[in-house]
Amino acid sequence: MxxxxxxxxxxxxxxRWLAAVVAxxxxxLLVAIPTDLIDTPLFGREIPPTWWAWPxxxxxxxxxxxxxxxxxxxxxxxxxxxxxATRRGGWVGAALTYFAVGCPVCNKVVLLALGxxxxxxxxxxxQPVLQVLAICLLAWALRRRLLGELSCPTTTSGDVARV
Length: 163
Hints:
The protein has helices at residues 3-6, 14-32, 53-69, 84-101, 108-123, 127-150. Helices cover 60% and strands 0% of the residues. It starts with a helix and ends in a 13-residue tail after the last helix. It contains six helices and no strands. The chain has 163 residues and is mainly α.
């Protein structure tokens, strides 16, 4: 069952792999800079990152990069039509990763919703759960896209020749 979607990777051209690397790198930078996992003078962090923040970010970024690469057309076929469910899974997974690895009291949305005491008491313990959900959503969306590549193409009524 797991090997089935993984066999889709064997037919990927170089440009898909390059797209995956570029997208994964962009995911890392887009999350790590504002959450201050990469130290910059632009952003600060009140609470140091957890031990699992980098492994979580890297796994989500790899899954996100592979997911983005599934939207790159191969030379012999066009890219699959984008299923809105898998697109949502990708975006929600990326957003959950941002909230999971970020500083609980530095996040303005969390502070507005819960206040600083609520961010520490309620939000910080939930962050690992958010990351598990992010990885599950990204893996689900990637699996759906890969299984779609392996399925037999169908014809629509416009493609059928009329006699």
